[in-house]
User: What shape does this take?
Amino acid sequence: MHSLSDLASDALVLIAIKLGAREGDHDHPYGHRRFETIATVVLGIGLIVIAAGIAWEVYERMLQPALILIPHPNALAIAAISILANEWLYQYTRCVADITRSKLLLANAGHHRSNAISSIVVLIGVAGSLLGYIWADAVAAVIVALMVAKIGVNLVSNSIKELVDTGLSDEIVDQIRAEITATEGVRNIHLLRTRQMGEDVLVDAHIVVNSRITVSEGHMIADVVRDVLIAKFYDVQDVLVHVDPENDEYVITQNKILLRQDIDGYLHSMFKFFN
Assistant: This one.
């Protein structure tokens, strides 16, 4: 049952990657990477359902010992083949996932590795049953169900964090902050925010520059910050940098921001009053 789920999950992976690889459009300006995230949630839920099915089957058989099956010796060979095949699938899929930076492929690679490990458990359980320990196969099935359920829960949990725009770890955020602060022309940084969309990382930041430089120079500093982060952090694909002349993170915003025309009008009325 666990290995059979790979067929469905691989089909899901193919469809999700094809959808997620599409470029951004009018309705989805940030791209379609979240399709892969949604597929990972579906994959995780599928694993949890499979684990529950295995556990329920074992439970029913334990209630009726007469239904406990003694595996055929050929099951040992099948389990051994499954170990080798799934480990090869894991190594190959993991290699492609590293190249493409696909979290969905990485999750699917983990699924193959779990199959290999569960097949080892099955091998031990079948061997125990053949040696006369009739409960060994059932115990092995329960262990496999728990392993599959744990993987499913982890996939769902991590994907939901991404769907609700959970930020990167404090360690990565501190590294990003350090790179921005080290950029020439940046006096301070605040309101640094990060989120993930599939394998891509998006960063927003407010930088403080000298208030007396030109707008074009401030814009140039922002471009340098963007280029540095994309070059230094492999997963960072887009950076939005807001330039401030002062640190306004804790400044209470006025009810109305005064623009040049407002100030000119105010000064004109004052001069007119005194004249």
Observations:
- DSSP finds eight helices and three strands in the chain.
